[in-house]
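Protein Record: Sequence and Backbone Structure Tokens
======================================================
Tokens: labelled as protein backbone structure tokens, with as many entries as the chain has residues.
Task: work out the structure tokens from the sequence, keeping to the layout shown below.
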Amino acid sequence: MDRNPGAAEPPAADPDTTDPDTTGRGAPVGRRVILGMLALGAGGMAAAPWLQARLETFLAAAADNDPTGVTGLLPNGGGFRYYSVTSSVPHKDADSYRLTVGGLVDKPAGYRLADLRALPQHRIVHDVQCVTGWRVPHTSFEGVRLATLLDAAGVRPGAGAVRFTCFDGAYSESLTLEQARRDDVLVALRMRDEPLGHSHGGPVRLYVAPMYFYKSAKWLSGIEVTRDVQPGYWEHRGYDVDAWVGKSNGRDDAPTT
């Protein structure tokens, strides 16, 4: 596990996906439902791609109505898991979604989904790596380079970092300004050649290709230029602020630029 020396032991949870809010309310998941999901998940591992996609959709919908977090423990053919750090997350669409860019900038801005789609789009194909060990190889993401939005806003002298907030109301992340300007850091609108679905952090998420997936904040709603890096949700729980893949698990990933 990549965490800061001497830091408190982080929870046994997937940092990109789960830390169910124990205060959340909802109907418990029944034993038959859990067993049925387990069977579906196991079958999906060997199923055709179209069945895997349907299985992922099913598990994602189930996770939206599962305050216990149990659904996130189930295997699925696509390799992703579905969790949130809150008991529920509002859904946003083209009419309700807004992304703000502010902080130490000359021209604060607000973007609708259509505005982001109208900007130059870039595609990255790279392995998604979770700090807890699971990975999904050769995953494509498409979107606007974060550097494009920063340049449009005009970063002021003295700025050194970028903070990201999310419309789940709880999650946050940060990068240094140098990291944020990399070509392999996207404000992503698409994943695997489809619009980002809600369960994958849509309609817009951050994608930081060279780092563990907890840095790629889901449900992105705010970009704030700051003087210094502000530890995010999982950094406050013991994970590294600099989350380069390979730092702690023996991998040496090539640059994704």
Q: What stands out?
A: The first strand starts at residue 99 and ends at 103. The CA atoms of residues 18 and 83 lie 4 Å apart.
